[in-house]
Give the backbone structure.
Amino acid sequence: MSAADAETIKRRRILAAWLFAVAAMVFVMVVLGGVTRLTNSGLSMVEWKPLTGWFPPFHDADWQVLFDKYKAYPEFREMNWDMTLTGFKGIFWLEFVHRLWGRIIGVVFFVPFVFFMLRGWVDKPLGLRFALMFVLGALQGVMGWYMVKSGLVDEPDVSQYRLAAHLILAFAIYAYILWVAIGLRLGPPTEADKGPLTRWSSALLVLIFVTAFSGALVAGLDAGLTYNTFPLMDGDLIPERMFEMQPIYINLFENITTVQFDHRVLAELTFVAVLALWFAGRRHGAGGGLALALNWLAALAVMQVTLGISTLLLVVPVPLAAAHQAGAALLLGAAVWVLREAVSAGK
């Protein structure tokens, strides 16, 4: 290996380590967002100040101003009319930390990005990938505020559509960062034709995204607070009232019964698909990093199903529900790892 090749590998590993750190921060952001949602803290900040909102209120008068603004909106009038300033501080801090963490991610990404560009470590294709990550991150901030605004109008709850879009965009950013980071570690993919494991891993990744989208609809409609039995839904394999709404398709997005049923079925399909992929990997002689990634994927799938069922049976306790959302992100990350390893190996 020449000195130039060794230097290139060193730089790629440094870039990968940076991206893995950013992906870990995005993971924390996803978990924070879930806790914010579960504790009904997301509507405590009724203003969006993307450039000037770095600091919390420091004085009692500042706190009172923010509390008075919160009182003008539906959540206080309809749900928290007896809330004190102390109680308001409790929900405010979670949302503030959530937004602050997003800003910190932006800095942790942008400053090294500029540094690496100035050092000449980043060629044009890789630079375009990094630029796309930054744009998607900025768009995620806008999407977050767009979601919050839906809960500041008539009903003290955000739109399940906007909540789902916010989560899926976060997952897409997370997955893309991991894809590029793993690629930097593994090197350029093989030129061989795509093998069956690559095709099946791609399909699994799509299925995980769809399942996560359905889970966001469950969260947005508080559908997890109903039908808290498993595997049956209050005694029925296929519950009644699944198609009460008109037009029929709207049941998939707004009918609590249908939304929970869909998420159960998709989660079960995902679990079966993961196990099938694991067995396929063994049959096709997956080894090295691909075998390790498949093992992690299978283990995380078992964990995620266990968390999901436990969350449902115990009527959505915050710690378990937050762990379930974290598990979804980990499972997605493992699926990205498996796919990238399969592409690299030409499997």
